[in-house]
Design goal:
Helices cover about 40% and strands about 0% of the residues. By secondary structure, the protein is an all-alpha fold.
Length: about 120
């Protein structure tokens, strides 16, 4: 997928994607449009919708309290085919673009990878 023009989405299926996978993509896009329609009709709040709160972890789904304006089933199985192929994420949504805007590197500092100049001189001599 790519976004070649602002406000558009281009999907280029390859020979590696079968019809079933493309049908699931279409179903997901149709479901997202249905959620947009529900928000536009005032049935769901824009800031507390299934897509806005996705992904829903198993801990969230099984918690004793559920204060969302949609059902646990809608959160857990947004499409019928998900019931047979559910992937449980281990974390909920992270701070959307924080990681993109604030690079955090857990690698050792560059000095760790640089060889000691004195060692190099000894080896050359």
């Amino acid at each position: 997928m790519s976004w070649p023009v602002s406000g558009t989405l281009m999907v280029e299926p390859t020979e590696s994607e079968d019809k079933g996978e493309l049908d699931r993509l279409c179903d997901a896009l149709i479901a997202i449009r249905g959620e947009i329609d529900a928000i536009a009709a005032g049935k769901l709040p824009v800031d507390d919708s299934p897509l806005r709160n996705a992904p829903h972890t198993i801990d969230t789904i099984l918690s004793a309290t559920w204060d969302r304006p949609y059902t646990r089933e809608a959160a857990c199985y947004p499409a019928p085919w998900v019931k047979a192929n559910k992937f449980w994420p281990s974390v909920g949504r992270l701070d959307n673009v924080h990681g993109d805007r604030n690079l955090i590197c857990s690698c050792p500092p560059m000095e760790t990878y640089q060889e000691d100049e004195d060692e190099n001189k000894k080896q050359v001599a």
